[in-house]
Design goal:
Elements lengths: L17 H8 L9 H18 L16 H21 L11 H10 L1 H4 L17 H13 L9 H11 L10 H4 L10 H10 L6 H13 L4 H10 L5 H9 L6 H20 L1 H20 L3 H10 L4 H16 L7 E2 L2 E2 H4 L3 H10 L12 H5 L12 H13 L15 H16 L3 H5 L1 E6 L2 E9 H5 L3 H8 L16 H7 L4 H6 L11 H10 L25 H6 L13
Antiparallel strand pairs: 1-2, 3-4
């Protein structure tokens, strides 16, 4: 949900990124008017989990069921046994997603916002005054998370030590620098934001917090795989070993969370009756599913490993990160007739202008005047770190002979090209008011026999085939299959004078000079074909995947998609 935030309109915080909301939640005393937005965010996260439970493609482990003590324990036993089976079949050297030592260290970095706020979901669990046994169990868990007053046992402190052991020294957690860390994926802040906004209203969301606790504490047995992976690469496994021990399902946090849920539901049944208990149970299970599925960090990490950013991508990131200050610091200076300050609003346009105006000589950093500006006598000396300058050089070299900067050539299939376009635009569309306001109607991804009308932002969160199917749906009037010239998405949007047209009107790396707009028009001309479904029969009753699932189970999964963060820690 990165950037999906609050509803536009009167909310001054609408459209910010999850990393921005995360920073605000850690500094609420400076943002006293943020609480309504925090409540809205909590509702959005939990609402997404409620919607997901109606998806017929959801793995059976996460589907809702009617509560009895027996059915609850059966489900927990089923989940636990599946995780134990994964541990018994796991081999660190065959880890399917975290394959190298560098991959594991990058995972340690990306999980920092969550693990350095470990325990935050229970931070307001004890009210002022007397407490009952349910809250005492949750409070005991929270005290353990905080180290019981001993900083050496504090879980966020232990994780910080792990970060330092792999030379990762992050800014102070509450600073803007921490939230703006360019090395962090936006989705790294989503789950920590989720636990912060829900726990801000602990009395309101008490049933959901019970379910969240059950998920996090019950699933830690799988972290035994992370211990094996850390040991395989000579990394410190203590943080993960500690969670395997303290969260155990026999007498540890896992068991305490189960007893808290059962006690709460029995109290509700005794005081209010069976149906009231079932209503509270639905909320408990929603909390469980929400913690298990919120965010896209796992999928983002997988994509990052399979398709690491090119030098051009990294240059774009550098420009975008510096743009807020850079676009007010260049006065009336121009590049190719355009004000430099204006070019910083469009990193790709700035990069193209640097080449077109001779500041960057493709393939030859030594002859590129741009690098002279970065030297001791230049006006941009020390604007970039040595690593940043190396990235600029790598990008310049990648431009030799019209190179695409190391990007893989585009596939010939128009449907696959459109999938790449959707994936490219997925992150950029977040927080765009137009995408939140504009709606598309199409076949419901959760029920192909039905239809659903949702904002464009919602469709971007669906599988690419579902989004493309809705985009081509005649009811929306945006696309005329087979006729790009008659399709409003081409005539009004992609070839118009707007941010989308500018973003997609430049050559797509590896596409032989074709622009992203050309690729979209080709897809429409081809009749709007959809990507082929994955080969192979769906697995019977598949279990949710994680970043540590054995590769053979991944291969048998019908979607191969990982929910949420892909790991409890």
């Amino acid at each position: 949900m990165s950037g999906s935030g609050a509803t536009a309109g009167t909310d001054p915080y609408a459209g910010l990124r999850d990393r921005d909301y995360f920073h605000i939640m850690l500094n609420l005393d400076s943002h006293t008017d943020f609480l309504p937005t925090a409540r809205s965010l909590a509702e959005r996260f939990l609402g997404a989990a409620r919607t997901l439970q109606a998806d017929p493609g959801l793995e059976p482990e996460l589907r809702p069921f009617r509560y009895t003590p027996a059915s609850y324990r059966d489900r927990l036993d089923q989940i636990y046994q599946g995780l134990v089976d994964d541990v018994s079949r796991y081999e660190a050297r065959r880890s399917w997603t975290l394959r190298t030592r560098e991959d594991v260290i990058e995972w340690i970095r990306q999980m920092a916002p969550f693990n350095q706020t470990d325990g935050a979901w229970l931070r307001n669990i004890a009210p002022v005054g007397p407490i009952d046994e349910v809250r005492s169990l949750l409070l005991a868990i929270w005290l353990d998370e905080m180290g019981g007053g001993d900083p050496r046992l504090n879980h966020p402190s232990i994780y910080t030590t792990l970060l330092h052991s792999v030379d990762l020294y992050l800014p102070d957690l509450r600073t803007r620098a921490y939230a703006e860390d360019p090395a962090m994926l936006d989705s790294a802040y989503t789950v920590p934001l989720f636990q912060l906004v829900v726990s801000e209203f602990s009395h309101v969301y008490f049933p959901e917090l019970l379910g969240m606790t059950q998920y996090l504490e019950w699933s830690s047995v799988e972290l035994r795989n992370m211990v094996l992976l850390a040991e395989h690469f000579g990394l410190d496994p203590h943080f993960y070993e500690m969670h395997v021990a303290i969260d155990n399902a026999a007498t540890g946090h896992g068991d305490m969370a189960r007893r808290a849920v059962e006690l709460f539901l029995e109290q509700t049944r005794a005081e209010l009756g069976e149906e009231a208990m079932q209503a509270q149970w639905e909320r408990v299970w929603t909390g469980y599913v929400a913690f298990a599925t919120t965010g896209t960090l796992a999928e983002d990490m997988r994509r990052l490993r399979l398709s690491p950013p090119s030098a051009a991508d990294r240059v774009v990131t550098m420009i975008r990160d510096r743009a807020p200050r850079a676009r007010v610091n260049h006065g009336r200076k121009r590049l190719g007739g355009t004000l430099l300050n204006d070019l910083f609003a469009d990193p790709a346009a700035l990069m193209s202008a640097l080449v077109a105006n001779g500041m960057i000589v493709p393939g030859d950093p030594g002859r590129s005047p741009f690098f002279g500006l970065l030297g001791p006598d230049g006006p941009m000396y020390r604007i970039f770190s040595n690593a940043d300058v190396a990235t600029w050089r790598e990008w310049t070299l990648s431009l030799a002979a019209g190179g695409s900067g190391g990007a893989e050539p585009f596939p010939a299939d128009p449907a696959r090209r459109m999938v790449l376009l959707v994936e490219r635009m997925r992150g950029r569309q977040q927080g765009q008011p137009a995408h939140q306001a504009e709606k598309l109607t199409g076949p419901d991804p959760a029920d192909p026999a039905g239809r659903v009308t949702q904002p464009v932002t919602w469709w971007f969160d669906q599988p690419p085939a579902a989004f493309l199917r809705a985009l081509a749906d005649g009811e929306n009037g945006w696309v005329v299959p087979g006729d790009p010239a008659a399709s409003r998405i081409v005539t009004d949007l992609l070839r118009g004078d707007n941010a989308m047209a500018r973003a997609l009107g430049r050559p797509a790396p590896g596409a032989g000079g074709a622009t992203w707009v050309d690729l979209a028009a080709d897809w429409i001309a081809a009749g709007c074909p959809l990507p082929a479904e994955p080969a192979g029969a769906p697995a019977a009753d598949p279990r949710p995947l994680s970043l540590l699932s054995p590769p053979e189970r991944v291969a048998a999964h019908p979607t191969g998609k990982i929910h949420g963060s892909g790991s409890v820690h």
